[in-house]
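We give the chain.
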Amino acid sequence: MPLGTASTLRALALGMGGLAVLVAAIEFAEVAVREEAGPAAAADDPATDGPAGTLARCRTVAPDDEAALEGCRAAWEEARRRFFGLPPETAVGPVRPAGVE
């Protein structure tokens, strides 16, 4: 069977399609594993100590836990400050509309 342009393109298309299906299957498998682990697994992971670990634990804090929320607010502010590249002394607090206390 001689290889012509049509058969070469057909083989290339089948190969690319097969590769796309394989990549999609791997991605779906990884998503399923991540969903099974959930955010609680990230909070218990010793590799997430420090700011990342604090932020991971803050995802599970109850709204009525004022002590934990205060620590989370500080962690969120620090993460925001680092993200925007602000030095600590110029970091701004939460923006509130005028007239709201």
Notes: The chain has two domains: 8-38, 45-92. The radius of gyration is 25 Å. The mean pLDDT is 80.
